[in-house]
């Protein structure tokens, strides 16, 4: 399928999606959302794909929601259409998604990166929630996911001042999992995604569910949920294969069942 705002490729078992609106620093408009849903959907139904990498350009992962598209809207418009709720579908992707962030990840761009399972940042990355400087607040999860990721003090600092933080600060406060040189960003993200895609699919999906559950529930319920998923993996052929391969000192051959 031909996309207007994305470049979509497959690299063996990894789906790679590049945001591609260079004239607007990858600002997220309704076409980007519709096309991302399409690209995610096609990777999710494709059994050969085990993980997804979402990236932008060297200059910008995404500089936010498209301000030119939003500027004329009034309260009735955004309320009646439940504006931006469509992004929830992106956040609920079942297969693992890695955000590979170079340059600006601002506003909705930072929020889109946070919808992914983890963020690998180029040393050039800059994160921020500048909505307050436009007379609005984050609307795609910035006040919620950012606070869970970095804690109240840092989230308040970023959301109330609208300032940007660099990759080093983002790594220190736990927003990004690792920093790599900008020219190695996509390569490193693809390698991480290929590793995930090589593992048993049921265990990967359950690991993702279990970690996400930690953000939604009490410790006791979370531990119970984890243990039940853990138990259920003993019903898979891949658990037998993974453990047999370890004992026999060979590489496992997973069947994803
Ligand atoms: C629409 C944008 C844009 C955006 C940049 N552009 N960001 N268009 N929406 N969010 C466009 C510019 O208008 C310009 O187009 C072109 O991209 C290049 O941008 P410049 O500003 O010339 O580049 P530069 O000087 O390098 O500055 C980069 C920047 C700046 C610091 C990232 O562009 C910037 O501050 N952008 C806005 C960041 C922001 O406020 N994001 C939050 C948006 S609100 P022209 O045609 O003029 O050359 C949001 C809410 C999300 O995200 C949740 C609710 C939906």
TrEMBL record:
What Gene3D superfamilies does the database record attribute to this sequence? 2-enoyl-CoA Hydratase, Chain A, domain 1, Lyase 2-enoyl-coa Hydratase, Chain A, domain 2
Q: Write down the superkingdom of origin.
A: Bacteria
What Enzyme Commission number(s) appear in the record?
A: 4.2.1.17
CDD domains membership = crotonase-like
Q: What does this protein do?
A: Could possibly oxidize fatty acids using specific components.
- According to the UniProt entry, the coiled-coil residues are none
Protein name, entry field: enoyl-CoA hydratase
Alphabetical list of NCBIfam families matching this protein: PRK05862.1
SUPFAM superfamilies (alphabetical): ClpP/crotonase
Provide the catalytic activity annotation.
Answer: a 4-saturated-(3S)-3-hydroxyacyl-CoA = a (3E)-enoyl-CoA + H2O; a (3S)-3-hydroxyacyl-CoA = a (2E)-enoyl-CoA + H2O
Please give the Gene Ontology molecular function terms for this protein: 3-hydroxyacyl-CoA dehydratase activity
Query: What is one process in the GO biological process aspect for this record?
Result: fatty acid beta-oxidation
Which protein family is it in?
Answer: Belongs to the enoyl-CoA hydratase/isomerase family.
Annotated keywords = Fatty acid metabolism, Lipid metabolism, Lyase
Q: What PANTHER family is this protein classified in? A: ENOYL-COA HYDRATASE, MITOCHONDRIAL, ENOYL-COA HYDRATASE-RELATED
One Pfam family from the record = ECH_1
Q: Which organism is it from?
A: Rhizobium jaguaris
């Amino acid at each position: 399928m031909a996309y207007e705002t994305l470049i979509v490729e497959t690299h063996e078992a990894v789906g790679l999606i590049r945001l591609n609106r260079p004239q607007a620093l990858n600002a997220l408009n309704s076409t980007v959302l519709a096309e991302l849903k399409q690209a995610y959907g096609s990777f999710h139904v494709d059994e050969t794909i085990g993980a997804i990498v979402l990236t932008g350009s060297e200059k910008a992962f995404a500089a936010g929601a498209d301000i030119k598209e939003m500027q004329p809207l009034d309260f009735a418009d955004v309320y009646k259409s439940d504006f931006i709720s469509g992004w929830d579908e992106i956040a609920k992707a079942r297969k693992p998604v890695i955000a590979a962030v170079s340059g600006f990840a601002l506003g909705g761009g930072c929020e889109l990166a946070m919808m992914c399972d983890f963020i690998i940042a180029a040393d050039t990355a800059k994160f921020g929630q500048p909505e307050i400087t436009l007379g609005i607040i984050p609307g795609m999860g910035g006040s919620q996911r950012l606070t869970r990721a970095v804690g109240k003090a840092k989230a308040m600092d970023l959301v109330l001042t609208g300032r940007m933080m660099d990759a080093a600060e983002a790594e220190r406060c736990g927003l990004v999992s690792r920093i790599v040189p900008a020219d190695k960003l996509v390569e490193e993200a693809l390698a991480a995604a290929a590793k995930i895609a090589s593992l048993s699919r049921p265990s990967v999906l359950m690991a993702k569910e279990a970690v996400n559950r930690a953000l939604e529930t009490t410790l006791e319920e979370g531990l119970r949920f984890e243990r039940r998923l853990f138990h259920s993996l003993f019903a898979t052929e891949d658990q037998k294969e993974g453990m047999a391969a370890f004992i026999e000192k060979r590489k496992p051959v997973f069947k994803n069942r």
